[in-house]
């Protein structure tokens, strides 16, 4: 039986150390023929490609007429689920599970920054001002609403519960409420969750349902002086509405790891707001990330070889 061709689309955003890459190739050499591409100048290497691991460009997709499986290195799949050049029968899998711990700690860092007034202290540090900040909060006893209970949202909920917070969650399905969630709402009950939360954490993927979900009406429904944390997708937020909520005093602050346009344009008003922290899409940066990603790829390659179900298969109709 002919070997299926697996292509790694390595570039500056996605790479694996040579040691992990070579071991993977060696361990699966009996089942797969491996190749690599790094740019559109190497399209000739994509002939007869069955599996692509990475983020293919449009030209790469067009060159892979025999593509059957696309393994993404990211948890988000919004750029590919409805891609007009990607055949409907191509299976897409994502890297959910790789970013859970780093994502949860990133969320905690942003919540703690606002709870303890770090934006104020950092501004004062730059100006050499010694001034205690009389406005502080505690996570203990506060209500944190996590909108989206996937891998990252779940890991964050566990840790926030350990801090003593009341944790409420919002997700599509409300059955089987986890013990670390105090109350679970469906997406049609999101407004109720927003009205209860001192901290609102958005971990939603970008889909037709979530595009622009956080608009002026959603921010109006949040508690006065609530804090908004976005580590999901920037396009789920109407940034004009967010800026209005921040500048009128409706929200106490916002922590943004993602924005609707990335990199965030230097002309954006978001940069100059005093009650905002921007972390430049850094949630996934953490020690051991290449090893965790390689382990996931290895598991799926093994399943594909053995004709077993692939891990993290994306529902292309739902978008995640």
From TrEMBL:
Oxidoreductase keyword on record: yes
GO MF annotations in UniProt: NAD binding; oxidoreductase activity
D-isomer specific 2-hydroxyacid dehydrogenase NAD-binding domain segment(s): 108-281
Coiled coil start-end: none
One Pfam family it belongs to: 2-Hacid_dh_C
Keywords: NAD, Oxidoreductase
CDD domains per record: 2-Hacid_dh_1 (cd05300)
SUPFAM superfamilies for this protein: Formate/glycerate dehydrogenase catalytic domain-like, NAD(P)-binding Rossmann-fold domains
PANTHER family, alphabetized: 2-HACID_DH_C DOMAIN-CONTAINING PROTEIN, D-ISOMER SPECIFIC 2-HYDROXYACID DEHYDROGENASE NAD-BINDING DOMAIN-CONTAINING PROTEIN
Protein name: 3-phosphoglycerate dehydrogenase
Naturally occurring in which organism (per UniProt): Sporolactobacillus putidus
């Amino acid at each position: 039986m002919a070997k299926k061709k697996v292509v790694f689309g390595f570039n500056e955003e996605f790479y694996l150390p040579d040691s992990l890459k070579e071991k993977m190739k060696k361990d699966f050499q009996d089942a797969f023929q491996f190749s690599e591409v790094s740019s559109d100048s190497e399209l000739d290497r994509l002939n007869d490609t069955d599996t692509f691991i990475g983020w293919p460009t449009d030209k790469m997709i067009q060159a892979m007429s025999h593509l059957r499986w696309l393994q993404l290195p990211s948890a988000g799949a919004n750029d590919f689920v409805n891609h007009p050049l990607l055949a409907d029968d191509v299976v897409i899998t994502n890297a959910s599970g790789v970013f859970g711990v780093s994502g949860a700690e990133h969320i905690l860092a942003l919540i703690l920054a606002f709870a303890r007034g770090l934006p104020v202290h950092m501004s004062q540090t730059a100006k050499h001002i010694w001034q205690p900040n009389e406005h502080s909060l505690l996570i203990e006893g506060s209500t944190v609403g996590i909108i989206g209970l996937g891998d990252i949202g779940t890991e964050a909920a566990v840790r926030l519960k350990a801090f003593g917070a009341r944790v409420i969650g919002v997700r599509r399905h409300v059955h089987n409420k986890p013990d670390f969630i105090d109350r679970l709402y469906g997406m049609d009950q999101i407004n109720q969750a927003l009205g209860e939360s001192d901290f609102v954490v958005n971990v939603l993927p970008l889909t037709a349902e979530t595009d622009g979900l956080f608009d002026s009406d959603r921010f109006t429904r949040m508690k006065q002086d609530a804090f908004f944390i976005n580590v999901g997708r920037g396009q789920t937020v109407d940034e004009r509405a967010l800026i209005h909520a921040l500048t009128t005093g409706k929200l106490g602050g916002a922590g943004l790891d993602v924005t609707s346009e990335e990199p965030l344009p230097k002309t954006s008003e978001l940069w100059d707001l005093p009650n905002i922290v921007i972390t430049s899409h850094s949630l996934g940066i953490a020690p051991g990330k290449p090893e965790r990603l390689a382990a996931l790829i290895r598991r799926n390659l093994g399943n594909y070889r053995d004709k077993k179900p692939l891990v993290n298969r994306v529902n292309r109709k739902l978008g995640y």
